[in-house]
């Protein structure tokens, strides 16, 4: 199958068919919903059972046999995300479980892996400490992507927009070059979500994501997924999940599916709020280094606008120092101090406290679904009295 072609994930009689002409809102509401059967519930609940009825004579043919190997609630979420990502989806109990399972399945001792030097820190840490025998090369998301980066690589992991710096790289261009050098390309799509960006259509081989963030969106569930074009790779990921036992809880999976139904609405409000907050921040005397890929003067905007379908609610900016961040967070009534992002509530995280290679006063701001005017007024008031020396 060539890059950019959609994998048909519909046609499963268990689920309602989606029309690919439908918009994001319609698709989010209907993706992963069960086909209409009179008398059956409109909304299916989570299936918690660990055991399934088997054919008494052992003839086989059961869809599910045991809870570690398969679960109808997983399939509903996989159907939904697969429709939106445009590939075959396998869900995992966290973003890290998704990423580490992919790396374990694809890499062997002696292989070379390329990771973003400015991406999610736990991936680099895990590769350094747990992935023995694999050589890791780090490259910054913003480049330069010189030819030697791809030399001998088996897998190139991109993260765009990157967390926390919000740099962007050109997926189509890098996938073409990596594939030409014999490497597969996986894109961490956590920040963008399937509505913000469809890496498989841009030529990537694999999408990985933490659905703990905007996809679930309510800050009450950890989950992750891998979506691929290749059916054999999807089977290998399912097999690794079954054998390792790193499986998602059915109730958590159901919460994620419930959250996904409003993804379009939430992202629309978050992006509207992010734009208003960016406007308020960009010439504020307390703020430097504002980053939001949707902002026309952002260094990443041109590439972002080419490959992203919409921009989310995550911004980055710098205050003078850690104390200015503390004062800002103490004075704000709507911006909570919390790590993670993508939820209904606006939160901010001073990433240097976790060891990210960013300035002491750098804040990642995750804009929530509050009213725009309230949020902008609160942030302006909280910044009063802060300025660069
Ligand atoms: C949060 C995050 C992860 C890890 O996901 P968990 O669900 O916390 O395991 C991976 N990549 C990115 C970009 C993230 O933001």
UniProtKB/TrEMBL annotation:
SUPFAM superfamilies registered for this protein in UniProt: PLP-dependent transferases
Species in which this protein is naturally found: Streptoalloteichus hindustanus
Biological process annotations from GO: cysteine biosynthetic process via cystathionine; transsulfuration
Family: Belongs to the trans-sulfuration enzymes family.
A GO MF label: cystathionine gamma-lyase activity
InterPro entries: Cys/Met-Metab_PyrdxlP-dep_enz, PyrdxlP-dep_Trfase, PyrdxlP-dep_Trfase_major, PyrdxlP-dep_Trfase_small
Required cofactor names: pyridoxal 5'-phosphate
GO cellular component term of the entry, any: cytoplasm
The protein, known as: Cystathionine gamma-lyase
């Amino acid at each position: 199958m060539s890059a950019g072609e959609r994998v048909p994930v519909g046609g499963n009689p268990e689920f309602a068919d989606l029309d690919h002409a439908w918009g994001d809102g319609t698709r989010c509401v209907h993706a992963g919903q069960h086909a209409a059967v009179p008398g059956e519930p409109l909304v299916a609940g989570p299936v918690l059972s660990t055991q399934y009825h088997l054919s008494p004579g052992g003839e086989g043919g059961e869809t599910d046999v045991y809870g570690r190997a398969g679960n109808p609630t997983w399939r509903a979420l996989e159907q939904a995300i697969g429709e939106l990502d445009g590939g075959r989806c396998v869900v995992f109990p966290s973003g890290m479980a998704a990423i580490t399972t992919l790396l374990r399945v694809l890499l062997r001792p002696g292989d070379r892996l390329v990771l973003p030097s400015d991406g999610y820190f736990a991936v680099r840490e895990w590769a350094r400490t747990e992935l023995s025998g694999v050589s890791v090369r780090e490259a910054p998301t913003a480049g330069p992507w010189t030819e030697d980066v791809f030399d001998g690589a088996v897998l190139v992991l991109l993260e765009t927009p990157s967390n926390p710096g919000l740099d962007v790289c050109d997926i189509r261009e890098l996938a073409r070059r990596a594939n030409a050098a014999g490497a597969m390309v996986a894109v961490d799509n956590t920040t963008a979500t399937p509505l913000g960006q469809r890496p498989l259509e841009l030529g990537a081989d694999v999408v990985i994501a933490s659905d703990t963030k905007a996809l679930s969106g309510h800050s009450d569930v950890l989950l992750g997924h891998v979506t691929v074009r290749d059916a054999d790779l999807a089977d290998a990921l399912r097999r690794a999940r079954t054998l390792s036992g790193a499986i998602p809880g059915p109730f958590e999976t159901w919460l994620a599916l419930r959250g996904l139904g409003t993804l379009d609405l939430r992202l629309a409000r978050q992006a509207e709020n992010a734009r208003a907050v960016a406007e308020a921040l960009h010439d504020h005397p307390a703020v430097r280094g504002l980053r939001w890929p949707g902002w026309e003067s952002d260094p990443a905007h041109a590439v972002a606008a080419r490959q992203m379908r919409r921009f989310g609610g995550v911004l980055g900016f710098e205050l003078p120092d850690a104390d200015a961040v503390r004062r800002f967070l103490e004075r704000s009534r709507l911006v909570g101090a919390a790590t993670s992002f993508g939820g209904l509530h606006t939160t901010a995280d001073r990433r240097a406290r976790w060891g990210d290679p960013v300035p002491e006063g750098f804040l990642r701001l995750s804009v929530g679904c509050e009213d725009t005017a309230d949020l902008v007024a609160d942030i302006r008031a909280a910044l009063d009295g802060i300025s660069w020396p």
